[in-house]
Design brief:
Number of strands: 5
Oligomer: single chain
Strand order of the largest sheet: 1-2-3-4-5
CATH class: Alpha Beta
Distance between the termini: 22 Å
CATH superfamily: STAS domain
Length: about 100
Amino acid sequence: MTITKKLEDNKLTLALEGRLDTTTAPELQDILIPAISEAAELNLDFSDLAYVSSAGLRVMLMGQKMAKAKGVNLTVSHVSEEIMEVLEMTGFSEMLRII
């Protein structure tokens, strides 16, 4: 998986490309945790994300909880139909702000 960071006007976007699974979830965690302190808004851009596993969902949930605790607005954007189906089946579509 490739993660690209872009900071613009106190909004940090993390663009994910590839698969968010057991192998790559720790990489996202290592970038996401410090990113929560870098900007007032944080967006996870799923434009090029092909797959998400339960390990990836766990990191997203942890990030959402940490962001909320620090007053950071966390959003998820450009979610494909396949990944949206996973988010809906797991209830994550109710926990995350998807735009």
